[in-house]
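Kindly inspect both lines:
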Amino acid sequence: MKKVYFISDAHLGSWGIEHSRTQERRLVRFLDEIKNSAKAIYLLGDMFDFWYEWKHAVPKGYTRFLGKLSELTDMDIEVHIFTGNHDIWMYGYLEKECGVTIHRKPETVEIFNKVFYLAHGDGLGDPDLQFRFLRAVFHNKVCQKLFSLLHPDISLWFGLSWAKHSRMKRKPVAESKIGDAAGTLFNGNVTPTYNSSGEPEFLGEDREHLVLYTKEYMASHPDIDYFIYGHRHIELDLMLSGNKRMMILGDWISQFTYAVFDGEHLLLSEYEEGETKF
């Protein structure tokens, strides 16, 4: 039976990832390995560290990845890309050239008679006012139009530099706290430990914004069986009330994780080249 796969947060092209070319090749090898078993593939945002399309130009690079996406859609495999907070600015190129379907907001879809709520996860329940302001600016049509007037070389340098600065700013803090026992206070709570991607580990059901959002949303949408997100760069498989489940997919920077659904079982797994079976 065909399967459906879910991946997020590769941040391809990042200036803050030393092994970016190796990372892209690994992702392409994974997609090549699953192509004969895949009915559909959902890429839940931030597959690019920065992506912006102009009328007659797109960022250079990513040829292996884009070629593989085109091969998959030529095989009649559905490929869905959700925009994240790093690659909001998709205006038709990937749809026309690669045959993918772009989603710019959370979607509720039925897969093998189960109902899935799919989203990148940015902006869902996050109370950070600075992040919410920046997100509003990035989504603003006037701001997007003004940004498009810049020369692509300037725009891409700015976007990739901003993304690198954001990643590197977190890295020293994360490296100093990976594996540390929590003990000091952070925003009135215990300081979290950090994972290898530089992200705080799971904060607990009462403090994790996506969990709180999901529980609230689930109360008014009881028909949804599974909630799947990216964005947080942590692996999470959480049972909610009844038989409802929520997943956060991790990333394709250091974790190389994905979810797969065969109609009966939803699994969160790590890709290990030459070992993973599909």
Q: What stands out?
A: DSSP finds seven helices and 13 strands in the chain.
